[in-house]
């Protein structure tokens, strides 16, 4: 199974959903506050997609290479995890260093830390962030240290450390019915984990166990792995059924869910919890349907430009947040934070600079890789 271009392109649209959700500064203005909270404060769906896609991609890759896949050991699990983050690690460190002065500024100006506590606090965060272990703490101050969005890479790295065990275990199962049972069991465990971990967040200092920690996100990744096995075991008859109509249907459902879930949760607060599981189901259908690459929308998604945008999505992810934070800090402490115009300027400049830097990195890397060959 070669790389599925349609899913690579969808990565870009999901990433932009995350970028837009990070324009929290729009909540400061009456005109944009409602629009932001209803439509743009929507990162959960896209973040869930990336974790499920990580498991999905790992299983597809493992299926191709399982004859040469190394035995399970601490060393090999470490090598596996490092190999999955090494392409993005230098950029991760760069964004962390770039964000460090602003982090220190906020800790002094906003949190009121004096020099010695500040230095000790930053050293503790650096010790955790360099080996990508900050999300394992389950504490927001550490998991979201420096470049706040890097918790995602940290959580993935921790999951990669144990993923070879999950891949080997799931690959031993041969019956499709067994995969279906395990998938439903995974949903049940995830449901219980959300409730239990949320209680821990409320009653202890571990305040970031549900959204950012690998303990909960591992279950999303395993859902992706199981989904990949179900896709690989699907027959030709199913492939013939899935086409343009099916793709249009799942795109319509996804769009309706994304634009309406916040509104529904406003009137029915309990739906906020159940929306988590509805989004997982929609994401699974989205990945499964577009894996066949049969319909008209798939043909559009396989265009070279969209695939390239999908390939730079992780660059966009790591780069946009420090830019957004620096511009917002400049606006806030220059006395212009009450003017909506400057909020819109922040959004536009963040997107433009992020894309320029991301494309530049992509081109430099492509040039380097071609010379290396």
The low-pLDDT segments are: none
Count of helix runs? 16
Strand content: under 5%
Computed Rg: 21 Å
User: Could you tell me the mean pLDDT?
Assistant: 90
Task: Describe the global form.
Answer: globular
Report the order of strands and helices: HHHHHHHHHHHHHHHH
Question: How many beta-strand runs?
Answer: 0
The N- to C-terminal Cα distance equals 24 Å
| Quaternary organization | single chain
Q: Major sheet: size, sense and barrel closure?
A: none
In helices, the fraction of residues equals over 70%
* SS content category: mainly alpha
Description:
This protein has 373 residues and is mainly α. It has a domain at 69-232. The protein is 78% helix and 0% strand. It has 16 helices and no strands. It has helices at residues 5-21, 30-40, 43-65, 74-109, 115-129, 140-143, 151-171, 176-203, 214-232, 236-241, 244-267, 271-291, 296-301, 304-311, 313-332, 340-372. α3 (43-65) packs across α7 (151-171). The longest helix has 36 residues, at 74-109. The chain is globular, with a radius of gyration of 21 Å. The two termini are 24 Å apart. 35% of the residues are buried. The model has no long low-confidence stretch (mean pLDDT 90).
């Amino acid at each position: 199974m070669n790389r599925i271009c349609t899913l690579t392109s969808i990565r870009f649209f999901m990433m932009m959903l995350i970028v837009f959700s990070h324009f929290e500064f729009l909540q400061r203005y009456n005109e944009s506050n409602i629009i932001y909270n209803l439509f743009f404060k929507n990162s959960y769906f896209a973040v869930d997609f990336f974790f499920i896609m990580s498991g999905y991609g790992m299983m597809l890759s493992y299926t191709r290479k399982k004859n040469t896949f190394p035995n399970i050991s601490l060393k090999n699990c470490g090598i596996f995890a490092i190999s999955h983050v090494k392409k993005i690690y230098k950029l991760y460190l760069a964004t962390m260093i770039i964000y460090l002065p602003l982090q220190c500024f906020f800790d002094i100006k906003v949190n009121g830390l004096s020099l010695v506590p500040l230095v000790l606090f930053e050293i503790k965060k650096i010790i955790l962030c360099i080996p990508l272990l900050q999300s394992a703490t389950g504490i927001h101050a550490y998991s979201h240290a420096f470049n706040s969005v890097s918790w995602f890479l940290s959580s993935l790295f921790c999951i990669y450390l144990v993923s070879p065990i999950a891949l080997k275990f799931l690959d031993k199962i041969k019956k499709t019915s067994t995969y279906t049972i395990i998938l439903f069991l995974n949903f049940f465990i995830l449901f219980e984990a959300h409730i239990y971990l949320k209680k821990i967040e409320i009653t202890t200092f571990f305040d970031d166990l549900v959204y950012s920690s690998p303990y909960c996100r591992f279950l999303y990744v395993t859902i992706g792995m199981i989904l990949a096995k179900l896709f690989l075991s699907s027959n030709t008859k199913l492939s013939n059924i899935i086409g343009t109509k099916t793709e249009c249907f799942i795109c319509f459902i996804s769009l309706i869910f994304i634009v309406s879930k916040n509104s529904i949760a406003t009137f029915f607060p309990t739906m906020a919890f159940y929306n988590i599981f509805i989004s997982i189901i929609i994401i699974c259908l989205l990945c499964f349907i577009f894996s066949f690459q049969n319909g008209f929308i798939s043909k559009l998604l396989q265009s070279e430009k969209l695939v390239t945008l999908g390939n730079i999505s992780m660059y966009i992810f790591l780069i946009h947040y420090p830019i957004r934070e620096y511009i917002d800090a400049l606006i806030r402490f220059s006395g212009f934070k009450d003017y909506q115009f400057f909020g819109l300027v922040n959004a536009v400049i963040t997107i433009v600079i992020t894309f320029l830097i991301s494309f530049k990195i992509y081109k430099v890397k492509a040039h380097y890789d071609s010379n290396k060959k």
